[in-house]
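My hope is that you will study the protein record below before we discuss the fold together.
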Amino acid sequence: MRFYFIILMLVLMPFQANADATRQAMKLIERTTAQGACASYIGYMGSNYRIGGFVSEQEANRIQEEHWRLASEAAKEFVALGISQKIDGQMMISPKGSSICLADLCFAKVEYFEALFLMSGGMEAEKAVTKKEINCPEGVWSPCFGGVPVDNWEYKAAALYDSKNCSLLVP
């Protein structure tokens, strides 16, 4: 009986490891995106840092840098995981010749992938702050977005920083 249990564990272990790597990869992507978005929200507040609940501009800058640092760490961990383990059954990032590739996207250095994932949070924040969904006529093939007036960006960024609980993401 014990022998069958050991065989069963050896057969199931790769599936569990794969599921753990996939779960860990998803957490790292979420952490990278959330921290990057929070840092960007602070940037959109500009010199009006008080609306975001910051006591001083120095505090806002320090917290923004901390968000970027945490996002960068998560992006590095994600890329390291993508290079070293199969995620969802396949290698996510792998060497091809002198390049390192993610599907058909290849770079000379692994750091470029880290930067790519790091930028994802900032891009998500940019869209959240500067765009808004609008009602479009039926049958329109592309997403319908309008621009938020520039004068409202800092207020929307402050509201998003608060509603996304960004202050809880920094130690």
The beta strands are 86-87, 90-91, 94-96, 99-102, 105-107, 131-133, 145-147. The CA atoms of residues 67 and 170 lie 7 Å apart. The first helix runs from residue 2 to 45.
